[in-house]
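Schema walk-through. Below, the input block comes first and the output block second. Nothing else is stored per chain. Lengths vary across the set, and this one has 203 residues.
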Amino acid sequence: MTFKALTATALLGLACLHAAHGAEYNTAKFVASPSGGFELKLFGFGRGTTGAPPLESQAFAADVVAPVPFFDSWNIDVSAMPAGSYQLVAKEIFAFGSVTFTDVALSFLDADGERTTLPFLITDQGKTAVGSGSFSVTKPCPVKSCLWIDVFGTQLPGESPANYGANITAQVPEPHTYALLLTGLAAIGLQRRRRRHSGDVNI
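--- output ---
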């Protein structure tokens, strides 16, 4: 790709972010759940529910009546969680009022700084985002946050209430999950060994 093409792509990305009224929040947090594991704290996560303005925001024009795109990026505080791997259990983000989702994803950085993204499935005509999979908590985190959620969507300006909330719980995978994984890896290894020996006999 040429420098001109790269520049055009970067400018397009910035234009899309600007058009989506990008906002970065630092109020999302995983806290210990009474039922075990950790849950995303409801207060501090959700459009229009944080009680404080985002780091970057733009007011919607009062005369705009069409749905306006938005992009929220949530840096998640994991200070209450030990470092390690976690599995999403209850994993739903739901919208209220005129808010609808277009894309939702959870991303994390591992100990090597590699980024992994878990996209959520958008259902119910954009009113629900459901995610599944596992993520890791890295400590110490070399950047502002090693775990974050990006939410893209639209909403009517000036409507109240018009927001979203979450029912996201994470827990350490059960020992039997690891046992199943090890059993599967052992089966794959055995199958490869049999194929190798079978090939030796045929030669």
